[in-house]
Design a protein that fits this description.
This protein is an alpha+beta fold. 50% of the residues lie in helices and 16% in strands.
Length: 559
Amino acid sequence: MSKQIIYNPEARLRLLQGINMVAKAASVTMGSSGPAVMIQHRTDGIAPVFTRDGVTVANAIILDDRIADLGGRMLRDVAGSVSRQVGDGTTTAIVLAHKLAVESLKSIAAGFHPIELKKGLELALLLVENHLEKIALTNVTADWIEKIAAVATKDEPGIGPLLAEALAELGLDGPLTFLLGNREDQLEIVEGIHYDQGFLSPYFITDKTRGEAILENPYILLYDREITDLMDLVPILEEVSDQGRPLLVIAENVIDKALTGLLLNHVRGVFKVVAIKPPGYGDKRIDRLNDLALLTGGKAILEAYGNRLDQVTLDQLGQAKRAVITADTSTIIGGYGDQNRVAELSESLRRELAEVYTRKPGQGSPTGNQHDANELKGRIAILSGKTGTFSVGGITDIEIRERMVRIENAYLSSKAALEEGVLPGGGVGLYRCQAVLDGIIAENAEQQQGVTILRHALAAPLKQLLSNAGINAEEVLMRLQNQQDNEFAFDMQRLQYGNFLEIGIIDPVKVVRMALRNAVSVVATLIGSESVIMEVPDLSIMEGYSPEWAAATREDPRA
């Protein structure tokens, strides 16, 4: 397929058109006063999406001009990256990236060298990040969490206490799943190893009233292949039966006569056994089996390493205090594993996850990066030993889905606050970082211009919030400049000044930092590009094609 090459300045101008269009659509959602955006569903007849989430708006915009769409794609990438890392702050990242892009491209048009501008931006970013780390208030309390949740959900009543309770119970590693609920918001916390795989047959049920298979003090067999022959299980079944204890079989599958044999013996009371599948899919299941083995103090039986099912001994089996299996879920409570080793593995996985999140746009496949991140988060969640479910309430599906996005963002913001602390919210924290860049002297005038561009961009989120709230920005900025207290902030809804902790205008440092970092990263990529190469689509394949004729004859001339 032939290629089209678009050189600067045309390439940058068309890229900037796309950036402007996406930023204009998404930035209006910023803040508690920001209005919502209605997005038509791609499928005709399905209700539209109603959202106040910047990344959702950005992802919905596809432009006809393919060069302009590349510019829009850069904002979609920066918002998506922030969303994956911290959940909230996506619109802040869009506003920052837009301001940086506009000012950087103006400077390049005026004759500044893009590489030197990039160095100046990165120098300023480093100084601001270091300053944010210094001014962060840590030791986050439940009261702060409630206020952070109020900001992130745009003052959604009653959400803060529920999210504070979830974080107190689950910590940073415990997973909280958000589901469509009924009228009321509900939080449910489950102890133990919990994942979405149920029993292989309803005949395993021991409590017919609740539809659960319950095993007290079970041994746990972990096997990476399908079990097709019951005779392979007989030796270990006899040993477990001699101990007077039940057996939980976690295997790729149990099929044919092997499953029938287990069910017959279970129903007749010869021995108590339940069979389920492990978490995860494909080659990742080996890691999940090893994680379960670590949690339960056993060993995964992996045939690829020469282990055989008919040679399994009791000391290779895991153990737990209790297992509760339903048609859709499995919960293993009180695993006998070494908690120190579990903690070491969890920390290792968190470092690996952090490495995935540091990949810049263009490094690896976005889909692959997301898959890796989700897999690591899933393993960390199981190792945490607790899980929660938040059922989001509302009257209509449209309302519930819109609320669910905001509540999930609030939860992720609260987690970010626990990780790196908090600072004044409402754009004030970033705005005050301008002082850090005052007096900085870079290596040359072009790098100095990069520092100046980022300094001006730090005020963009605050100005956008004030604009969305219909407030005179000059008056607020003047009041903030005359106030030396770094904890001084402004509540735009109640038109109230004061200490940011007292008036509840709080931002997590990590959210602010990641929004700024990703914005600088994507703009540095943009200004460093001298030309754009695009494929020229082959339209000849559509010659002679008539949708009406194809529908009438059920034939497609392109075939």
